[in-house]
Amino acid sequence: MKKTKTFPEQKQNLPGNEYLMKPEPEIIKENYAGSGKLLGKVAFITGGDSGIGRSVAVHFAREGANIAIIYLKEDKDAQITKELIEKEGQQCLLISGDLKDEKFCKSAIKTCIKTFSKINIIVNNAAVQFPQNELEKITAVQLQKTFETNIYPYFYITKAALPFLNKGDSIINTSSVTAYRGSEHLLDYSSTKGAILSFTRSLSTMLAKKQIRVNGVAPGPIWTPLIVATFDKISDFGKDNPMGRPGQPSEVGPAYVFLASDDSSYITGQFIHINGGELIGS
Ligand code: NAD
Ligand code: MG
Predict the structure, then answer these.
(1) pLDDT tens for each residue of 83-116
(2) Ligand 1 centroid to 192 CA: how many Å?
(3) Which top-rank group of organisms is this from (predicted)?
């Protein structure tokens, strides 16, 4: 096994920029071979400019999908992702804006439909976090921002997309290991991730009759811009799990391919745990 490397200390503000990270995260493993699992599909990915969302976007493109990416304002990261998708021979639509605004969510879905004429896969993935060690430090303003960013858009986007989704289409939501085991310094964030878990389960039963599947991924520590933009100390990041190291986005993207593709045709309401071996139930 490779020896665990220590990341150099670095600090950015939210939203972090992937192109400034040292080292830059691994997006897709060199030997990942696409096999047309998402041929002709259109995927709509929030937070697809960087981190886990970028990895999902590039994996989906390698499997034959066209991609719409929603991001806040990281134009350079988004442009890099677009180029990576085009290198895979697929098209990429970039839409920048604030998912906290339901009107924007509706217009983003509309723009995607106008461009690609359809949507088959929704990946709800954008999020923020503001670590605080004491409850007293979580202001009403922070609480509102965390919930309005991390869970409200899951409703807005899904609601706007639903009229365009059909049998065989799929929704994938990004939760977190913190939803399952809690996090003493991410009380509000982990609460939104718990909400995403319940949202996924409830929506999966609501949409099962339409044969639209709703699943999720619950990552552990993954090396992304969110981490360098929100944690003060990086060098110990992700070492506190059985594998003793953080994961790379390249180790997360393939799970989204599985949940988006026909390979998981009888799976709905479930989560895949990508966390270096932390056992936290289902
Ligand atoms: P990231 O910073 O690369 O991605 C988050 C994205 O959210 C940003 O690119 C940003 O453009 C977007 N975003 C934030 N606020 C927005 C807003 N108001 N409107 C539009 N877009 C907005 O970081 P990441 O770690 O890849 O995060 C992706 C998902 O993974 C998040 O849901 C996060 O909670 C989850 N997650 C990450 C980790 C980890 O260790 N990195 C662990 C568990 C879960
Ligand atoms: Mg980003």
Answers:
(1) 999 999 999 999 999 999 999 999 999 999 999 9
(2) 13
(3) Bacteria
Active site residue 19: no
Pocket probe for ligand 1: among 224, 234, 239, the residue whose CB has the most ligand atoms within 8 Å is 224
State yes or no: pLDDT of 31 exceeds 60: yes
- CA 147 to mean position of chain CA atoms: 16
pLDDT tens-digit readout, 148-200: 999 999 999 999 999 999 999 999 999 999 999 999 999 999 999 999 999 99
Query: Residue 276 — left, alpha, or beta (φ > 0 → left; ψ -120 to 50 → alpha)?
Result: left
Q: If you average pLDDT over residues 213-226, what whole number do you get?
A: 98
What is 36-274's CATH topology? Answer: Rossmann fold (3.40.50)
SS3 content of the chain, % helix, strand, coil (to 5): 40, 15, 45
The ligand that comes nearest to the alpha carbon of residue 275 is 1
Index of the ligand 1 atom closest to the CA of residue 221: 40
Extents of the domains making up the chain: 36-274
Q: For residues 260 and 175, give the distance between their C-alpha atoms in angstroms, rounded to a whole number.
A: 16
137 band by pLDDT with thresholds 50, 70 and 90? very high
Task: Give, for ligand 1, the residue of 72, 100, 189 to mutate: max count of ligand atoms closer than 8 Å to Cβ.
Answer: 72
Distances, alpha carbon 99 to alpha carbons 22, 64, 96, 126, 201, in Å: 28, 27, 9, 8, 22
> From the CB of 203, is ligand 1 less than 6 Å away?
no
Tokens of 264: 């998981």
Which two structure tokens, joined as six digits, stand for 255?
A: 């799970």
